[in-house]
Records
---
Amino acid sequence: MQIFIRLVFTFAILMPVTGWPDAGNETYQSTILITGANRGIGLEFVRQYSQLQWKVIATARKPAEADELNALASNNNNIVIEQLDVTDHQRIDELAQKYQSQAIDILMNNAAITPKYLSAFRSLDGVDLNMARLSFDVNAMGPLKMAQAFMPHVEASQQKKIIVISSKAGSFAESPEAAMMYSYRASKAALNMYMYTLAFETEKRGIILTLLSPGTVNTMGFFGRFMPGSIQPEESVSNMVNVIAELKLQDNGKMLNHIDGSVISW
Ligand SMILES: NC(=O)c1ccc[n+]([C@@H]2O[C@H](COP(=O)([O-])OP(=O)(O)OC[C@H]3O[C@@H](n4cnc5c(N)ncnc54)[C@H](OP(=O)(O)O)[C@@H]3O)[C@@H](O)[C@H]2O)c1
């Protein structure tokens, strides 16, 4: 019975999504869904996968304000934009339902509250507990809920990959020995453990679930130039695209480096 249900679902999911610009095209085209696609690393993922001729479902909290993403989509008909705040679980379910007939080769969990807010570098007295709660909601529970909703779409695809952009800041072994970024570090550590745990399930489904560290990336514009050792989003993302293309089932449940896919210790 279970096999029958899976066959029916797989058949349904490989049918073209109505509304996609090239719906009805029968040749298989790889598809990626990206969260936080309006700026920074997420926007660069959209650019590069679109250039690689993938179908890109680019999600953003506020599409109307996503000028660069809108410009990109208006010049590339393989990009569709969807509104998504990853703390809105009902909206995640709605999108999963809308794309129920669309296989998704890569579910790219990129969106995060990153430590650009003012209190991020303060020590204990300055830790903003509302920001702490929001960081957990977005950074840790967001990707977990996305995996819950989109696992069938990934399972029905050819590449079957769930990618999670994490950070060395969430690693006990690699995080800087300093009292700062409490909420970012803790939420990324929680994310790492959620994904480490989930990987025992994805393994059984033939899905590769891998966390990636993008390096220190200048997503801060002018001021980012002064971050020691920072690289541009183009370089980080092209490295990650190469690492993702080479992923094997053995990489399931690991956190890897953006440059060469080497393993980062938890
Ligand atoms: N840059 C680095 O050096 C670095 C280093 C290590 C790891 N990372 C990781 O790489 C990823 C991307 O980083 P970045 O530097 O590109 O970050 P960023 O410039 O701060 O962009 C964050 C993205 O996440 C989105 N976002 C925030 N809250 C959201 C929510 N509730 N729902 C949906 N989207 C939300 C933002 O949308 P809005 O524009 O609407 O706020 C934005 O698109 C993050 O996971 C980050 O932790 C970055």
---
Amino acid sequence: MSAPEVEGSLLDPEIAACPFAHYRELHEKAPIHRMPETGFYVASGYDDVREILSDPVTYSNNSQLSQRVGESAAALGRVYEEHLADLGWGHVQTLQRTDPPDHSRYRRLLNRALTPPLVRAMLPDVERITDELIDAFIDRGSCDFIAEFAFPLPGKVIAGLIGLDDSDITTFKAWADAMLAPSQGLLTNEDTARHYASLEAEAQHYMAGVLEERRAQPTDDMLSAMVAPPDEGDAPFTMHELQNLMNQLITGGYTTTADAIGNAMLLLLEHPDQMELLRSDRSLLRNFADEALRHSSSVQGLFRRTTRDVTLSGVDIPADSIIHVRYGAANRDPAMFDAPDRFDITRGNASRHVAFSRGPHFCVGQPLAMQEMVIAFDRLLDRLDDIALAPGATLERAPGFFLYSLVSLPLTFTAR
Ligand code: HEM
């Protein structure tokens, strides 16, 4: 059958800012829905989403989406790419944009670079950075949690991963913002496209220098593992590939984690009973992080391309269609999660969420992101009491179709 119609669209900024009523309608009437404006198929049911994510042969990550966006966006994207190629290393498709077996080669390398021992070795730094950020605002009794905590924490952690001093967060933020600009619709004209491309090129030259240093004198850090001789049978990575992998680590690990921390704090503010439960029982921290990611997923959806005709939930989808895989909706599917709109940090199956995806592209940074969330909230609850939304604060979500991000979160609290 063809895809059923529903009212409303994820492209409507009001729906994107709070998509959950729309998800309920999709679950009831159209688990596979075709967006009339774009022709994309939206997959919202948990079982369909899992099937798509676990079959990279049928559902390709090489979505060729950039060739399908509007002409002006595509033209500005080309200006960015050309300028970057002139000044640094033009983008090549690696990792998230590739399918097995190419993808498996990238993934083997990254699994070697972000190992559990490396993540464990980073924890003292994550704790130190967390405490330093809290030190900076604790005496004031108020802060903007997004600007002063949720963003700088993962920013400083990734800055450390790429060999920057974590005090140099301003440089890191400018580089990361530039790398994110093309996907966040910030290339408004040729000047902005060239401006962001030259910032990314600056970051690339810095990283090329550090990568070459590690090649000559390896340490036990992530960059050394990335330039170490590959496993038998694997070709070594070119500088183009290394640059693209670094871009994905930075763009994949920064705003996603910041949004997760911001959304989790808002959920605690909206559910004071859950905040008190977590305060009194820290063994729930990990389940809390999973439940927050399930309930308010940072990445609400990404894309796949069908490589053959398929049928999902009774809907026929032709080969070469774009499927918008809506992780955030799958995480609210009542067929999988009982009373899915309820935020419950003791939920038994919270960790079955797909906020970090599933299958071969499962988030490579998940262990690090989970540790950052656990440490952040453990220290925040240790050091702050009476955490509340500042009087008169209004909540605003960043515009956008994929990410679920708070612009600011003004808080008041007392020091413990
Ligand atoms: C709460 C925080 C995070 C969330 C919600 C998140 C979410 C995701 C999702 C949904 C994907 C899957 C993409 C797909 O299905 O095609 C992904 C992949 C990825 N993530 Fe994360 N991520 C987070 C943190 C991180 C961190 C901290 C890093 C790195 C330091 C990172 C690096 C990556 C990379 C490189 C990929 C591509 C993996 C591949 O294609 O094999 N992420 N992430």
---
Amino acid sequence: MTAKHIDEMMMRHALTLAHRGLGHTWPNPSVGAVIWQMHNGEPVIVGRGYTQKGGRPHAETEALAMAGDAARGAAIAVSLEPCAHHGKTPPCVEALVKAGVGRVVTALEDPDPRVSGEGHRILRDAGISVMTDVLKAEAERVNQGFLLRVREQRPFITLKLAQTADGFAGADGKPLMISCAMSKHRVHLARASHDAIMVGVGTIIADDPDLTCRLPGMMHLSPIRIIIDTHLDTPSTARVIETAAKVPTWIITAEDAAVDRETNLKREGVQVIRVQKDSQGHLDIKAAMRRLAEIGITRIFSEGGPTLAEALVVNRLSDCVEIITSPEALGRAGYVALRPALKSALADEKLFVASPPHVMGRDHLQYFERVR
Ligand SMILES: [Zn+2]
């Protein structure tokens, strides 16, 4: 194994660790770190860590704690440039220098203009060998939410939409129970790796969903629930409102929505966020996402119906689209899942790269990834 192979192998491991923190570290990025020593030409891992819930402790601190004295003279792979600013705890670069680490391998420079390059510089000034941009493209993918928040002032959005074999999302004022058990499991797993789940008020009224992660042992990983509700029409009897004291629930509404409704929702523990309307009198979805990024949200899983899905895609706000198609047809008229603007955007190769559909239990799942 060459040194380059070892660096990449360790970075791949660090990125896998970083993946574990996704959905739980906002507004901070989820970072992974692996420390290793060379013994007879073979790398031996002596410490590893990833960003803990809420963003602290950092990955480097976790890995250094595990390595103890073995960190002296060791190499460390970190998926993002180590922090250099003094916050609630001393910066990671200081901890790395103090531990006597001999070599630092990173995947990405911190995009925050106040930080970028400073961590690397301090490490080099301390006589540590620094190698940057190792598996950069892979690291950009893992950290897309954090990067978009800093670079484009919006969160990363995964959009999920389920349809019948003949293309309907709902009928007779109700969504259809479309997805199979395996697809549902996958959805609950996806919820846990996002900072927030988002739906429109129509979904709340029609379906009254819980919007929590109900896989065994994962309830505590339920993200924030966000409802797009222009006129504050969310009923106080909705499950998301009744459980708002336990699972954070935010409603994004228009600046002119009724104040008394806001007061009632706040009493139930809901956080109400007001944003401007667009020129057509609809809630400005771009402004809403900008506001969420300002608050610190980096990753959103959108489970709304066709209206919200179309708005997100038309406004170029969705980064990954997942279409779940059941083998059963509705066989009569219903609500079309993929409206014309959404359908044509997904078919446009300049906008999205489509994966071949894969089998998910009884259903088919197709991914569309935004072209950057
Ligand atoms: Zn740090």
